[in-house]
Amino acid sequence: MKLKIALGQMEIVPGRPDLNTRTMLEMIGQARDAGAHMIIFPEMSIPGYLLGDTWEQRSFLRDCEEYGKEIIDASAHLTVLFGNVGVDWEKKGDDGRVRKYNAFFIARDGKLWGGENFPYPLRIKTLQPNYREFDDDRHFYSLRKLAQELGKTPEDLLTPVYLPVHGKQVGLGCVLCEDGWAEDYFTKPMAAIQKRGGVNLFVNISSSPFTLGKNSKRNRVFSKQARETGVPLIYVNNVGIQNNGKTVYTFDGSSTVYNKNGEVIYYSQPAFRQSLGMVELDLASGGTASPPLEVPEDNDIGFIYRALHYGIKKFTAAIGMKKVVIGISGGIDSAVSAAMYAKAIGPENLLLVNMPSRYNSQTTRNLARQLAQNLNCSYTELPIQDSVDYTIKQIESTPVINPVTGEEFYLKITPFMSENIQARDRSARILAAVAAAFGGGFTCNANKAETTVGYSTLYGDQSGFLAAIADLWKHQVYALARYLNDEVYRREVIPRGIMDIVPSAELSFEQAVDEGKGDPIAYPYHDYLFRSFVQWWDRATPEDILHWYDEGVLEEKLGCRPGLVKELFPTPGEFIADLERWWNLYNGIGVAKRIQAPPILAVSRRAFGFDHREAQNGAYYTRRYRELKKKLLGEN
Amino acid sequence: MKLKIALGQMEIVPGRPDLNTRTMLEMIGQARDAGAHMIIFPEMSIPGYLLGDTWEQRSFLRDCEEYGKEIIDASAHLTVLFGNVGVDWEKKGDDGRVRKYNAFFIARDGKLWGGENFPYPLRIKTLQPNYREFDDDRHFYSLRKLAQELGKTPEDLLTPVYLPVHGKQVGLGCVLCEDGWAEDYFTKPMAAIQKRGGVNLFVNISSSPFTLGKNSKRNRVFSKQARETGVPLIYVNNVGIQNNGKTVYTFDGSSTVYNKNGEVIYYSQPAFRQSLGMVELDLASGGTASPPLEVPEDNDIGFIYRALHYGIKKFTAAIGMKKVVIGISGGIDSAVSAAMYAKAIGPENLLLVNMPSRYNSQTTRNLARQLAQNLNCSYTELPIQDSVDYTIKQIESTPVINPVTGEEFYLKITPFMSENIQARDRSARILAAVAAAFGGGFTCNANKAETTVGYSTLYGDQSGFLAAIADLWKHQVYALARYLNDEVYRREVIPRGIMDIVPSAELSFEQAVDEGKGDPIAYPYHDYLFRSFVQWWDRATPEDILHWYDEGVLEEKLGCRPGLVKELFPTPGEFIADLERWWNLYNGIGVAKRIQAPPILAVSRRAFGFDHREAQNGAYYTRRYRELKKKLLGEN
Questions:
Q1: For a surface tag, which of A10, B11, B88, B477 has the fewest beta carbons within 10 Å of its beta carbon?
Q2: Given A490, A515, A540, which residue is the final one in a domain?
């Protein structure tokens, strides 16, 4: 039997069941016109997936149900598979509120199917991710819990849905997202469903955010499952952006069909585009009649570019921001930011602002102006020296009165304080006002290394409406700069000089770029050290680092250049001082700054924010660390 | 048999197993000296409870295990019950990392007890809160999951721990925190353990944050459980503060002993104080030999004061902040803030700063100075008008160059923009610099109503190192002001004028306090409206509000003054316009501002931050709302 199946890779607008239902009804109409037997929409296609605690609004749940009924009503002569919240108004969730399921609906001819061998006429998610940025267990009652409540095993409830399609009975294995990633769970939903017999087709509806390398991994995992069950598998994912407040995720789509041998026979391309895919699937052969496709790996800088480009475009549109102001220093981060925004929202909607103080070199000022010219962006220079001097003078010359003694005293601004005054003068005094006058917001251009250790000023360069490149390590920022020149613009929009200059905040003469002085972060080493703290699955701590240092395998473990550590830190004392300096900052003021930092556009597996939950508890050193440190320093 | 039991109501320092173990060893020594048979420490007494994702550091887990061994080694002739992370290095959690349990350890004579009828020599948490500020399922594998994995029911695993105490066998029912709050779960841990027989004593070790009214509720729930099982129950909770980044929680202790009739026979007082409580519990009579105590309700403003006082004291100490700067406007929020900090850290460590512009009345300037005098705090006035004028002039007179046309244009600052310029000038230009020079940080004085709708300026009054009163509605701020004068200081430190004046930002002549003009928020109504959006268990939305408005029961539902709605909004059109205005702000710019807001000290059941997860998705109106609106406006 050949089935014509439409893959509704729709853009889901989170929290907007009205808009999503409209999109779905349009796609249903198109699929019907094209003679499809079945259309598949992503997980939570009606409400959206990342909604914070909106799930606690009963009127929102009712609304989702009612829009769901519209979709069911539209299923005449067409099987419509879609995701929605399933509400059992009679039962409670663990929090005592009304019970909600992350549900898979199977509609045909105006009614729901699958209720004859399951407690509800729908299917619910078995494996609910409650790690990384996901909070499924906070909101939804999993099949594992339902089984336990009913005194059954999860396997008892993992049944196929049988329904007539095209005059024949088809057995569908209906799973949701994480159900296909069962490796770390004792319950294997697909295997369990397949064991019940009569499964002709697995359908995985997902709402799976893009992160670098995810699709390559997904293809390995899903391909294996199709092969092992011997049943073809259709994966439908959405596009669009969704966020958790602190972290913004792009959804790439990349819907895929695997035949029973695990080969890819359909792959939605390009990523990040709404599409109604059409596949003819021969169930008799398990999809092997179609020729297998090669699927590209998704872990290069081009994918980062595409995800950020899409994320910037969609996020600015979602919050209604049409105009953007970027403070450009002549350094790499703001240059990459400007080049990204110019592509995403158009150079005519950008205003680039250079804000020199006495510490800014003519070199970087020229580079900033050159960048604006290359990008065809409006440009202005607003110096900050007079204002900074005024602030320091005002504070230092105004008496503070002690009411008890009646005495007066004066505050003193140190050079370090004046560095932060400069940074705040730029962002909070100038950029925020300029952005309002220009009719938009201003950007935060921080990278991930700076963000890790709070090498930034709160209400200064740490601020902005979005930190679009804050999930990129410094070496990725450079790679993106090259990619922008070579592949996106195909000309030198980011001047060579910006790539060659030493990274520097230029907040004092100690950071003079023309003398080769700059940031205290040695990116070729610290990028990789910080990555091990933040981004590794099992996160490294000073104990691990010192252990590897002691064993002479640190560079190999971190993935940085051999010999680098000895060059930077000739002695264990220097190595340890550096390690503790950054560990203290990462766990100390870095946390305080991230609490007040803008949303970050995520591309890695572990962006700061909701995927990197943290408490302001300060740095801790384990006992083994303290002992090893003593040994290395020759103390006892 | 009479048992002498020590309740180790310790201050837990989150993320510091070294310090916590030291505290525990000291208390163990004291308990032994006092002839105790048993000492009980709170949940997660070694590592702390709210640690973000620190649980993903394997070296931290090992460290906690090793400190746990020290406690076990110290249990000669003394039963030591304590909380720690239990690690099964051979098994995986759902996230694929090493498996962790939120575990209850029972140590005596250098070894662990309870392994003969359980998979491990410990007990693990059955019911894991994964709602509000809690993320237990993110980190820990619950007994429910373990049972399912082993093909058992939770009840199979819910067994007492039998151990010899004082020469006799004692059956302990060992549960953790949420296990005692089983009402909304199908598994009832205490009932299940009791059913196994031989239980002489229940012990609930908790790490339960203070929120208003929690203890009264806990006493009702726990008392019922003791009564129903007919077994005495000891509840041990910690003191201290812990945080989730965005939200800071105080822990009140309030450890309690219930006899088998559910009567309280021991109650640790005062709240928020580390103590080693001692009770003699006659197991033969189920604790009924001791006289029952009256326990006060904990829902008045005095409890809010004590929680905030403790929170400010502990939080500033935890982050090493000794000096604090507060911008005082002459309004109620900053006055309450100043009076709170003066008590918590001492007036000598405070610097109060008034920053008038041309819009600030002499009335509020005088009130600000009076407040500083009353509190005996250092005080200074730093006017902002010159700087604000300079910023506006600089921006308006500097040309912006369009690189394509070569043309120049000029930006224009509107009066609304200049309001935000003033607010940022105060906080980001002055307070941040003054705080650095004074050697500390500056506070955010926002209240909960403002925070709900983002009635504040980012990098302006929305900034600071801590928002200590941002979990208080405006009417609670006034109540706290009265409490401070009447009960804490017992004199008028907050001048009467500050309480009487109309709340106003004084950012334009439209907000002139001397003319009775002020904030657009009508607190006697909006406080209660916003509370229904934010704080109700089933959160209200415009659909609910409009429905109640239509039915004439809105004031009753919200709990505000009858007749108020009609006074404020004579027509449905005005009512709806107001409703939508604030709903849009709450879901729109309010979210954007909260993402970058300081940590909030929580006192309510739902502070902003980690207990109120939200996405920047904008406002949504359900279909039923839109229909009802049409009806009320007479549209069709």
A1: B88
A2: A515
